[in-house]
Amino acid sequence: MEKPILVPVDGRTETAAFQDLGSVLRAIDHGRVKVAARTRLPTAASRRHLASVLAGGDFYPGTPDGCIKPVGWTMLVQAGGLAIAEPSTLRLTARGRAALGRAPEEVLRELWTSWQANELFDEFSRIEAIHLKGKRSIVRPSTRRRALTTLLLSLSVGAWVEVDEFFARARESGARLEITGDLSRLYAGDPILGSLVFVAEAAWNLVAVRYGLAVLFEILAPMGALEVDYVSPRGARSDFQALFAGEELPFLSRYDGLRRFRLTALGAYCLGVESGYRPPASRAPRVTWSGLELEFSEPPPPGLVTLLGQYARPLSAVRWRLDMTRTLASAERGHPLDALRRALSEPPPEARAFLAEAERRTTALVHRGTAHLFSCESEELARRLAADPATSRWCVLASQGRLVVEERHLERFKESARRLGYAVLPEMA
């Protein structure tokens, strides 16, 4: 085998993945991502919206050849515990909100770790042309992913690998990428005539390779672990034409166009090949500051536009002004200021002072829970209850003969008031 040619990975794939992670989480936070109850995959409208905010859009924008990046991201954030469906709209979990302020490479590494172990999703279900009879005795998705990961660990960063060569090595090594050992349970089109038993010699390419392509193209590539070289899936492969009615299919899977890939530095870190990671130099548009206003040398990417919109007012396609009201509203939704700091390039003193003041204001007024407001028949009674040792521990004197009682102290306050001879009745309409 010839020694692979190493080509430096320029970091654009990794930078795009960092932007996309934030864009997806913010789209979820804005309630823009809905999923189907059974599959937990994004709806058509949600796929279109996600594609519009991803750096560079989807792999095949504006074509009927399938949606890849939006689906991959939606599965990743759910499997990683960053989002949950309530009931069909994805909502950020506490972990998901915290991820907005964390180093993206750390979040992505954790997402891949979670993805390897998850059994909620099976990438093979995305090969819609091939069907499985029943769910018994299939090779678990986590087992298949571990086998694929083992193969990826042997790759060098920056070395292009032809997919056919990669999967030939996988077959020789005995990697468990098959879905089931019983081909009679797999079929295309007709359950009988389309049984894969009739094309057993091609089963590895039709099943194991297509499964592997789905993981590489839909999971690892969007998260920046792989840089991919691909063409249209139409006509990219012909091995499926031996299937029943195979000649009627334009392609077997939307991933058929993947020709080769290479491991990025981020991929080596996420897979555990490397223990550390150094982010690539930023290629964001040049920023010029004037007080609290920032102007880009060119329109910023969609992910950065979405981020800025939470903290600043747009003045034009390239100019923004930091806005305290928007910043505080964003903080109330659980978005840390670290996400903005990470995106800003060497802000001037005025902007740094703005961020410091915003940080102070986000902690100056803290919500401590729910409380109940009680009206007394007189201010004298209110003062008496607020001063009496039996009830003073559970209430605070307010104005106009009122007492404030925290939710957690309500029952103790009512019990103490009864001992003093007062009943606490439900609020009268």
Structure write-up:
By secondary structure, this protein is α+β, with helices and mostly antiparallel strands. It folds into 3 domains: 12-270, no CATH class; 287-364, no CATH class; 371-419. Helix content is 38%, strand content 12%. The protein is built from 15 helices and 14 strands. The protein has helices at residues 12-29, 44-53, 69-79, 94-99, 104-117, 141-152, 163-173, 203-220, 265-270, 302-308, 324-332, 338-343, 349-364, 379-387, 410-419, and strands at residues 83-85, 90-92, 131-132, 161-162, 186-187, 226-230, 258-263, 287-290, 293-296, 312-314, 319-322, 371-375, 396-397, 402-406. The strands form 5 sheets. Strands 8-9-11-10 form a 4-stranded antiparallel β-sheet. Strands 4-7-6 form a 3-stranded antiparallel β-sheet. β8 (287-290) and β9 (293-296) form a beta hairpin.
List the helices and strands and how they pair.
Blueprint: H1 12-29, H2 44-53, H3 69-79, E1 83-85, E2 90-92, H4 94-99, H5 104-117, E3 131-132, H6 141-152, E4 161-162, H7 163-173, E5 186-187, H8 203-220, E6 226-230, E7 258-263, H9 265-270, E8 287-290, E9 293-296, H10 302-308, E10 312-314, E11 319-322, H11 324-332, H12 338-343, H13 349-364, E12 371-375, H14 379-387, E13 396-397, E14 402-406, H15 410-419
Antiparallel strand pairs: 1-2, 3-5, 4-7, 6-7, 8-9, 9-11, 10-11, 12-14, 13-14
Helix pairs in contact: 1-10, 7-8, 11-13
